[in-house]
Amino acid sequence: MPGRDFGVNYERKVDSMDSLAGTQSFYEEADDSRRKRTRLIVAVVLIVLALAAAYYAFSSGRGAADAGGGEEATVPNITVVIPGRVSVEAVITTNGTIAARREMPVGVAGEGGQVERVLVEPGQWVDAGQTLAVIDRSVQSQQAASLAAQIRVAQADANLAQAELERAEALVSRGFISKADMDRKRATRDAANARVRVAQAQYAEARARNARLNIVAPAAGLVLTRQVEPGQIVGAGSGVLFRMARGGEMEMLAQMAEADLARVRVGTRATVTPVGTDVEIPGQVWQVSPVINMDTRQGMVRIAIPYSSVLRPGGFADARLVSGTAELPLLPESAVQSGPEGNYVLIVGKDNKIERKPVKVGTVSDAGVSIASGLTGNERVVTLAGAFLNVGDTVKPVLQKSSQ
């Protein structure tokens, strides 16, 4: 029936619309719940963060307070020493070059010529008058032989003149020879003898010149250099052919500051160590420069040292000069530290705080390190753990007896 169908359809439509309205209401309620839940979560997170920040601030303040109290309770114990002043050797360190104390340049003493042989090498010991190089003398030898023959000729003439004079003297008493003839014969004999002496002198001169041809050592010593070879033509202008150290004696030429130079005297003991070796050679100051270089403010000290195979003129060496004794603070080596600005020590000063003192180190020995300047000897010097301390740190000093 048409009317009934219409009623049924109408009811279905009404039910469908109610169902859709209910679904829409459901979703709106769900969205509201989610929003409320999100707001609640955000609020809870903010509260937790605020509580955490408050706890952190409270904990930091309490930790700082606890730390402050802990510092006072954990001040480190530091071993210190009061060095005082003890008698130590005043040592001056310096350096310089090695040289021959008495260097002898050897050249051509005669007329020179061509070198035949060289008989010595650098580093060889020679005696006084020993031949160092032989010069060719073939021409000079012939000249000497000629002069020797002239002596014999002159001597023969002198012998003949003497014989004639003796025969004439035998005839004078008989009246065969006048007194004037006798005078002439005596003059002839005297002239012949004089010619003999002239020939002998010329021959001796030639031999002396020939002897001076060879280059010989003027004194005993050590040959340092050789500047001649076989076949070389040498003469008076050839310059120095050999250099020698008389007796092998050496010396060290040390440039010293004006203040240190005033503390050195002739006779001051020294120990010289050539660079590159650990050999210690005892020496003695034999000359102190009477003048100071105006540019460098330094003066020369010459230290005599005996010959040693490790010494080479021109080489470099270090020296320690003992200029006497002095009253200086003496510290263990562990107390002295080094930095870019030099040596220094740490001392415990006012209010037990660490202070830094620059020092100048003197003698280093088995007993310790002497302090040439920078300390009076009454300071409390840190002996150990200096590398772990900073200036201004507060410490508790523990006094250690100084080793005298």
UniProtKB/TrEMBL annotation:
What the entry lists under SUPFAM superfamilies is as follows: HlyD-like secretion proteins (SSF111369)
By its UniProt entry, which Pfam families does this protein fall under? Answer: Beta-barrel_RND_2 (PF25954), BSH_CzcB (PF25973), RND-MFP_C (PF25967)
- Coiled-coil region list: 144-209
Keyword set for this entry?
Coiled coil, Membrane, Transmembrane, Transmembrane helix
Keyword Transmembrane helix (UniProt) = yes
Name the family. Answer: Belongs to the membrane fusion protein (MFP) (TC 8.A.1) family.
Q: What is this protein called?
A: Secretion protein HlyD
Q: What is the lineage of its organism?
A: Bacteria, Pseudomonadati, Pseudomonadota, Alphaproteobacteria, Sphingomonadales
